[in-house]
Amino acid sequence: MGFEQILRKTVLVAEDDQSIADLLLFWLEKENYQTFRALDGHQALDLSLRHTPDLLIIDLQMPFMDGGTAAQEIRRHDSLREKPIVFMTAHGDKGIELFVNIEMLGDGPIEYITKPLDFVYLGELLRRLL
Predict the structure, then answer these.
(1) CATH number of the CATH domain containing 69
(2) Is residue 81 in some structural domain?
């Protein structure tokens, strides 16, 4: 394993739409992030506990467990309590209000991005959060 590999930040992407997930994962890996993908909120929680990512990108609308509920469950664990979470929504800032009670997520950084994704903005956001 090279030195660059050791320093790579890890990002968990929780997104049930295959085309959006593929595009996002491709971009993140091109930007030198190590990635993990979850198809729903349950997988996001499981992968977060196993890999302790540096940052999580979570779609708000997913099957089985929505992104807001998954984030609450993730933030209940000490090792993940302060990890930055970036929510993805097709509903703008109103999406956050519909799906997430921000007070229930503790003090760790919370941001959101809208779909379709603006990769210039996302890059700036990740650099600021990490």
Answers:
(1) 3.40.50.2300
(2) yes
How many separate domains does the chain show? 1
Mean pLDDT of all residues in the chain?
A: 88
Does residue 78 belong to any structural domain of this protein? yes
Is 61 domain-assigned?
Answer: yes
Task: Confirm if 14 and 38 have CB atoms less than 8 A apart.
Answer: yes
Distance CA 52, CA 48 (A): 5
Q: Which amino acid is at 35?
A: T
pLDDT reported for residue 72:
92
pLDDT in tens, 69-100: 999 999 999 999 999 999 998 876 665 665 56
Paired with 11 in beta bridges are 35, 55
SS3 content of the chain, % helix, strand, coil (to 5): 50, 20, 30
Q: What is the pLDDT of residues 25-45, one digit of tens each?
A: 999 999 999 999 999 999 999
Residue entry with tokens 């921000």: 102
